[in-house]
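Box S2. Input/output pair 1.
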Amino acid sequence: MLFRAAAALAFASLGSLAFAPAGAADLSGVPSAAEMPFVKAVSADLGSRFATTAAAESAGYIRYTDEDDTGAISYANRHWTSVDEKHPSQLWYDHAGRLIGADFSVPYVAGKPPHLFGVNPARWSDFDQHIHYGLAGPNGTTTFGATGAKKIVAAGGDPAEPTAANLVAAGIAKSPSDVKFVFEFPAIWDLSVWVIPNANGAFADKNPAVKPVNPPKPGMSM
């Protein structure tokens, strides 16, 4: 996701932050008249095509986070350029597997938030390059985590192409066989939108209709 909330946990431990362009703090989460066509279009389209996590996985999205404090569990397709409204880079589901939101992204260019989809450029946040991974947990579960690009470099790896061996060298995994997945999350501009009704607006940080079941504990990192 809500990479806003999920990343806040990871970046707290990575020493990195997500930023929004100047003016973002002055915006309401409620879409403007110019933004409503985008919100309506993606809500209808994504709700139809990706109503279930199985549909997302069939399209190449993989789960890479636990539930965050907004109630979102994030899936990424690892394609970070959303060429149009039909191609979000991330989808969010609640604990019951209901599609609740999505992220659209483009590669980061300093000082140049995107002018796309009729959305105010100030709604796009930027994220630093970092690494996500999943490790084998007990009873077939997956332990999700994230680390900074510098840690992969220090382990002798390339952050653009991180490997299981890099995670072992970095002391994150005990064995390459424990690594279920690892991928680069590049520097991007990111736009988050709720695709279900939200009393606070489609661009709000949280949705009062979505109640987290297993939210992260204070001080807990991804």
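Box S3. Input/output pair 2.
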Amino acid sequence: MKTAIITLDIINDICHPKGKVARYPERISSKKIIENINKITAWGRKKRHLIIHVRLGFNSHYLDCSSKSPVFSNAKNKQVLALNEWGGQFCDSLQIEPNDAKVIKHRVSAFYGTDLDLILRANGIERLILTGVATNNAVELTAREAHDRDYEVKLIEDATECASDEEKKVSVHFLSRLAKWLTTKDLIQ
């Protein structure tokens, strides 16, 4: 079964301590989330899995940003998640190789309004391994949509993170019906 590993929203504004909307960079750092993602993508490259890095962001005009969304409505006023600025760039600690695919999204789901499904189908992908942030937002919604698009979904618990243990516990519980949760060690051994 052909597999893709997807990293979600490992960008400066969200994951770096100096990020404008970073709510839990200390959790990402202390739990070694990016380090685990790098282990997974390195393993995936050896297995010839497709690696796709997805980042949330908006163009400098912010015409692609929803003014109605409670999540994004203040992005323009605060000048956050700008694709052409430091905050909208992938974190330097995320290891990206030249042959990795990159996808830009303008909403929570990695599927909505992007080329993600096109890339996956063009490459005969049947299984997705999801990593990134936030477990209860981008990871969860992407996993739900992947399930409904008939992909087998695996989620890596120690390579996803959100603002609290309680939020993560709820996502793990509900997504367990749609996907299989693993640890980095379980996956790569």
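Caption for Box S3: The two ends are 18 Å apart (CA to CA). The first strand starts at residue 3 and ends at 8.
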